[in-house]
Backbone:
């Protein structure tokens, strides 16, 4: 059924106050078939309203990336390309990742202390060769290494910003980072202040990405029975722990273990915590 053109013009006139369209457009619309005219009006109305459309609804909070409340500045980290020989024969498998880092384990490398800091790349190559050779590991186990001059080196491959799964603490390699102090720090051995400050700096930064307080406690689940805890056991461990907190060992040595409380406080200050 066709509606007379004159009646449609009257209907358009009544709608003119709701939708402001040029007169020649209204006349043209009035002569279109009924359903086509209604559809055309809807399309025109949407076009007219577009400049004053309501703002897009806010993105749900859970869909936005979380912003850490207590970030710490990223320290300077020497990339692994500085110490890893490009002709290394070891075939590097793809890295593995966790969702975030919620705890840090501090180690010592149990190697000589009398090195020159300029020779540290050679020292790390030696450690890498021992772990990937005699121990048949897929890569160096530590995520970071720190020398006595306070220089921080990237260890395990995968990207320092990401939560790379390490091979540093039996049972607790997931969601943790391993930081190794280059040297041996048994009882009575001096621990350089530059070294402990660097450990605090990298720990504060990595933990800050997940807004974790270095002075707190983390609940970690042991992945195997070689740790201090049976496989599947959830243990409450210090967020900034010594290797011996998760594994039966003397690492990181009595002297460095005694400095962990100070390292925690320094890391918390770097995160802006009181």
Residues:
């Amino acid at each position: 059924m066709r509606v007379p053109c004159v009646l449609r013009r009257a209907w358009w006139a009544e709608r003119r106050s709701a939708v402001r369209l040029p007169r020649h457009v209204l006349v043209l619309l009035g002569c279109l078939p009924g359903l086509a005219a209604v559809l055309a009006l809807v399309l025109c109305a949407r076009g007219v309203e577009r400049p004053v459309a309501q703002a897009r609804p806010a993105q749900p909070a859970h869909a936005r990336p979380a912003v850490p409340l207590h970030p710490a500045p990223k320290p300077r980290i020497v990339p692994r390309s500085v110490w890893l020989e490009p002709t290394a024969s070891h075939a590097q498998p793809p890295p593995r990742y966790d969702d975030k880092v919620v705890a840090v384990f501090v180690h010592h490398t149990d190697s000589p202390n009398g090195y020159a800091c300029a020779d540290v790349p050679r020292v790390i190559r030696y450690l890498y060769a021992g772990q990937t050779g005699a121990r048949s590991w897929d890569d160096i186990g530590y995520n970071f290494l720190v020398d006595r001059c306070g220089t921080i080196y990237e260890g395990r491959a995968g990207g320092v910003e990401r939560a790379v799964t390490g091979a540093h603490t039996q049972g607790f390699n997931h969601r943790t980072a391993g930081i190794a102090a280059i040297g041996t720090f048994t009882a009575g051995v001096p621990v350089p202040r530059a070294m402990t400050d660097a450990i605090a700096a990298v720990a504060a930064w990595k933990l800050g990405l997940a807004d974790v307080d270095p002075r707190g406690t983390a609940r970690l689940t042991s992945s195997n029975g070689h740790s201090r805890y049976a496989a599947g056991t959830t243990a409450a461990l210090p967020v900034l722990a010594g290797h011996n907190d998760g594994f039966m060992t003397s690492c990181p040595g009595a002297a460095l273990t005694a400095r962990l409380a100070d390292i925690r406080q320094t890391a918390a200050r770097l995160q802006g915590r009181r």
Summary: Residues 246 and 273 are 26 Å apart (CA to CA). The radius of gyration is 32 Å. Residues 1-19, 25-29, 31-64 have pLDDT under 50 and may be disordered. The chain is about 30% helix and 10% strand.
